[in-house]
Amino acid sequence: MIIAYSTAPNETIANEIAHYLINAKLAACVNLIPQVKSIYYWNNEIIEDNEIIEDNEILMMIKSEKSKQQNLIDTLVEIHPYDIPEVIIIPIENSFKGYLNWIHTSLN
User: Fold this and answer.
1) What is the DSSP letter of 1?
2) How far is the C-alpha of 66 from the C-alpha of 51, rounded, in Å?
3) 8 forms bridges with which residues in the sheet?
4) Phi, psi at residue 45, to the nearest 5°?
5) Which long-range contacts (CB under 8 A, 24 or more apart) does 8-11 make?
6) How far apart are CA 78 and CA 82, in angstroms?
7) Measured between alpha carbons, how far is 103 from 1 in angstroms, rounded to an integer?
8) How many angstroms separate the CA atoms of 18 and 5, rounded?
9) pLDDT tens-digit profile of 63-99?
Protein backbone atom coordinates (compact mmCIF):
# COMPACT_ATOMS: atom_id res chain seq x y z
CA MET A 1 0.00 0.00 0.00
CA ILE A 2 1.04 3.59 -0.62
CA ILE A 3 0.19 7.15 0.30
CA ALA A 4 0.47 9.75 -2.45
CA TYR A 5 0.68 13.42 -1.64
CA SER A 6 -0.37 16.13 -4.05
CA THR A 7 -1.50 19.72 -3.69
CA ALA A 8 -4.38 21.50 -5.40
CA PRO A 9 -4.97 25.24 -5.81
CA ASN A 10 -8.37 25.21 -4.07
CA GLU A 11 -10.98 23.00 -2.44
CA THR A 12 -13.18 22.73 -5.54
CA ILE A 13 -10.38 21.30 -7.66
CA ALA A 14 -9.17 19.05 -4.83
CA ASN A 15 -12.72 17.65 -4.50
CA GLU A 16 -12.93 17.05 -8.25
CA ILE A 17 -9.58 15.24 -8.27
CA ALA A 18 -10.49 13.16 -5.21
CA HIS A 19 -13.82 12.05 -6.70
CA TYR A 20 -12.17 11.24 -10.02
CA LEU A 21 -9.50 9.07 -8.36
CA ILE A 22 -12.01 7.22 -6.19
CA ASN A 23 -14.42 6.62 -9.08
CA ALA A 24 -11.51 5.34 -11.21
CA LYS A 25 -10.53 2.94 -8.37
CA LEU A 26 -7.12 4.58 -8.13
CA ALA A 27 -7.72 5.70 -4.54
CA ALA A 28 -9.59 4.14 -1.65
CA CYS A 29 -9.60 7.41 0.28
CA VAL A 30 -8.42 10.97 -0.25
CA ASN A 31 -8.03 13.25 2.76
CA LEU A 32 -8.23 16.94 1.92
CA ILE A 33 -6.18 19.07 4.28
CA PRO A 34 -7.08 22.75 3.82
CA GLN A 35 -4.97 25.88 3.94
CA VAL A 36 -1.53 24.42 3.43
CA LYS A 37 0.84 27.32 2.97
CA SER A 38 3.28 26.45 0.18
CA ILE A 39 6.46 28.44 -0.31
CA TYR A 40 8.41 27.64 -3.46
CA TYR A 41 10.49 28.90 -6.35
CA TRP A 42 8.86 28.72 -9.75
CA ASN A 43 9.99 29.38 -13.29
CA ASN A 44 12.26 32.31 -14.03
CA GLU A 45 9.49 33.97 -16.04
CA ILE A 46 7.42 34.44 -12.89
CA ILE A 47 10.05 34.78 -10.18
CA GLU A 48 12.51 37.66 -10.37
CA ASP A 49 15.49 38.24 -8.08
CA ASN A 50 14.79 35.07 -6.09
CA GLU A 51 11.43 36.26 -4.84
CA ILE A 52 9.27 33.63 -3.17
CA ILE A 53 5.67 32.89 -4.13
CA GLU A 54 3.32 31.95 -1.31
CA ASP A 55 0.06 30.11 -1.96
CA ASN A 56 -2.63 28.62 0.18
CA GLU A 57 -3.26 25.18 -1.24
CA ILE A 58 -5.16 22.02 -0.36
CA LEU A 59 -3.04 18.98 0.45
CA MET A 60 -4.45 15.69 -0.82
CA MET A 61 -3.39 12.56 1.07
CA ILE A 62 -4.29 9.70 -1.28
CA LYS A 63 -4.37 6.06 -0.11
CA SER A 64 -3.87 3.39 -2.77
CA GLU A 65 -2.03 0.20 -3.69
CA LYS A 66 1.49 -0.05 -5.08
CA SER A 67 0.12 -1.90 -8.14
CA LYS A 68 -1.83 1.27 -9.06
CA GLN A 69 1.04 3.66 -8.39
CA GLN A 70 2.10 4.48 -11.97
CA ASN A 71 -1.49 4.77 -13.17
CA LEU A 72 -2.20 7.10 -10.23
CA ILE A 73 0.82 9.27 -11.09
CA ASP A 74 -0.07 9.38 -14.80
CA THR A 75 -3.70 10.25 -14.03
CA LEU A 76 -2.79 13.01 -11.58
CA VAL A 77 -0.41 14.55 -14.11
CA GLU A 78 -3.10 14.35 -16.81
CA ILE A 79 -6.06 15.81 -14.85
CA HIS A 80 -4.22 18.28 -12.62
CA PRO A 81 -4.41 21.99 -13.49
CA TYR A 82 -0.74 22.63 -12.60
CA ASP A 83 1.90 22.29 -15.32
CA ILE A 84 4.06 20.30 -12.91
CA PRO A 85 1.88 18.88 -10.14
CA GLU A 86 3.39 17.62 -6.92
CA VAL A 87 3.09 13.83 -6.74
CA ILE A 88 5.04 12.20 -3.94
CA ILE A 89 4.59 8.49 -3.22
CA ILE A 90 5.42 7.00 0.15
CA PRO A 91 5.07 3.28 0.90
CA ILE A 92 3.01 2.30 3.91
CA GLU A 93 5.47 0.17 5.83
CA ASN A 94 3.35 -0.55 8.87
CA SER A 95 -0.36 -0.18 9.54
CA PHE A 96 -3.40 -1.84 11.06
CA LYS A 97 -4.04 -4.89 8.85
CA GLY A 98 -7.78 -4.23 8.84
CA TYR A 99 -7.21 -0.80 7.33
CA LEU A 100 -4.86 -2.19 4.67
CA ASN A 101 -7.45 -4.85 3.82
CA TRP A 102 -10.09 -2.13 3.49
CA ILE A 103 -7.88 -0.22 1.01
CA HIS A 104 -7.35 -3.40 -1.01
CA THR A 105 -11.06 -4.30 -1.01
CA SER A 106 -12.08 -0.74 -1.97
CA LEU A 107 -9.85 -0.78 -5.03
CA ASN A 108 -11.06 -4.08 -6.49
Assistant:
1) -
2) 38
3) 58
4) -65, -30
5) 8/57, 8/58, 8/60, 8/80, 8/81, 9/55, 9/57, 9/58, 9/81, 9/82, 10/57, 10/58, 11/58
6) 10
7) 8
8) 12
9) 999 999 999 999 999 999 998 999 999 999 999 999 9
Q: Are 60 and 87 in contact (CB under 8 A)?
A: no
How far apart CA 60 and CA 73 sit, in angstroms, is: 13
Average pLDDT over residues 9-30: 96
Confidence at residue 53, expressed as pLDDT on a 0 to 100 scale: 56
What pTM was estimated for this model as a whole? Answer: 0.86
Closest CA to 72 of 61, 64, 80: 64
User: DSSP string covering 36-98, please?
Assistant: EEEEE--TTTT--TT--EEEEEEEEEEEE-GGGHHHHHHHHHHH-SSSS---EEEE--S--HH
Greater pLDDT, 70 or 40 = 70
